[in-house]
Amino acid sequence: MEHNKIDTEFQDSYNDQQKWVVDSSLDSRGEIPVRARTGAWRAALFIIAIEFSERLSYFGIATSLVVYFTTILHQDLKMAVRNANYWSGVTTLMPLLGGFVADAYLGRYATVLLATIIYLMGLILLTLSWFIPGLKPCHEEMCIEPRKAHEIAFFIAIYLISIGTGGHKPSLESFGADQFEDDHPEERKMKMSYFNWWSAGLCAGVLTAVTVIVYIEDRIGWGVAGIILTVVMATSLLIFLIGTPFYRYRAPSGSPLTPMLQVFVAAIAKRHLPHPSDTSVFHELSRKEYTKGRLLSRTNNLKFLDKAAIIKNRGSENVMAEKESPWKLATVTKVEELKLLINMIPIWFFTLAFGICATQSSTFFIKQAIVMDRHIGHNFIVPPSSMFALVALSMIISLTVYERLLVPLLRRVTRDERGISILKRIGIGMVFSLITMIIAALIERKRLDYTKHHHMVMSALWLAPQFIVIGIADALSLVGLQEYFYDQVPDSMRSLGIAFYLSVIGAASFVNNLLMTVSDRLAEAISGKSWFGKDLNSSRLDRFYWMLAALTAVNICFFVIVAKRYTYKSVQSSVAVADGGDDVEMASVANTSKCT
């Protein structure tokens, strides 16, 4: 009788899990979502559609920015590259603010919606600057200097796009992943496929941008390209809104920085306490009490912070009062979350060299293509920015080979679920970025010699190797960084995790500008000649590439040292096991899994 009662209760629980989504999500009415009506692919496809249009717009502008600065705004090479790097830096650092706002206050859906509207405003202004007479670049067909009004409108437009990207990028991918419940077997499998389709949509947007949109900018005009980008973004916003009833939503959890500050305060207040050998004195919530995220296991690094979780005066009346104040007593999980963020700082710093190498593909590499022969046949000329398509194609092919061939092979060899650890993957990608800089330096030197001796331009096909190799580096390091920061941040900071990965490229753009300034001044002081002239033929870009190669080589050595000492997130997991047949047994197994 008792056995039948247990079977009935388990069947009811299973039926409820199949009908309702029980991962703290809500539907558009603020109620528990019905699985058959919300989330999964019926919601995710709307989200992938808007990602396609965002990447289409971003790369349609980013890859042609140096061309725009030099041909439309008539800036010299040094100024054009600096302005492009400043914009790229701001655009990829803004997600730090957007991710914080999404996680703490607005939620991901509202942040994506607001960011897309701001993005659309930037595209509209960019388009109008080519059609309103007072904002057009020039009074006539040919002009030496553009109108000041056009410059102002153009910079306001692209920085509105930066702000829009800041809210869009860290929130949208996480919002898409929220549509699949981790504890539901079928949806968990769908979630794995979701990331593949997400990447496919992203790469489709990039390829369309650097082929179709760039060709329109080069041959028809920026105004027409702006109209297309604006219409596509407006359409995707409408599609996103149509999907509103089908989405699953997560409420913002408040500032993720406050618990970190509380750990610091509690640790400093207990700094005089000895570090205990008895782990039972550390405070932690039970699984039932802890409803936000997952419990983490205590690690042995940064032991000073462990003191924040020590329970003083055990057994006294003060214990309950102490537990009520998070400024006096932190949980082990909160301590470990702070350790995760601190441990990320050296990893973030020593991946900047990769970011600097990656920024060259959309700045100096494109500028090299401008001064080289881009003819295919007698009539067709490849737009310089379309050379970036080689990076996207190389990345797609590399990811496919890595996922389908290398990972299964490496799993058998290393017995690691990922094949190799995330940091090893990033490190290997950094080696490919070093190879890219060496190839780029050699080809640029050959181009200078060829132009000088033959008074002719080299074929742009000579640039293919550096574009292809940096694509391989991106497939390993860039995707690895995305996985690393998303996986290793606390569960309450997923949007910020995506922002941290983007900030590597943003900060690298600013550091690249600093390196250009410093190296240029040193070159002038030593040899009396600048590395960056008014055009590429009067510059020594090959020397700048050799300098980046040397810095990257030294940086890789430091990265290896830091990676070897790194401690990965250690998660306590609870696994439910059900046996088939007449008897159903539920067993809760507590274990610790290292996310490597």
Automatic annotation (TrEMBL):
The keyword Protein transport does not apply. The chain crosses the membrane at residues 86-106, 112-132, 194-216, 222-243, 340-361, 381-402, 422-443, 463-486, 498-515, 544-563. It comes from the Eukaryota. Its main location: membrane. It is a multi-pass membrane protein. It is found in: Membrane. One of its GO terms (molecular function) is dipeptide transmembrane transporter activity. Keywords: Membrane, Phosphoprotein, Transmembrane, Transmembrane helix. The keyword Thylakoid does not apply. GO terms for cellular component: membrane. Belongs to the major facilitator superfamily. Proton-dependent oligopeptide transporter (POT/PTR) (TC 2.A.17) family. PANTHER family: OLIGOPEPTIDE TRANSPORTER-RELATED. This is Major facilitator superfamily (MFS) profile domain-containing protein.
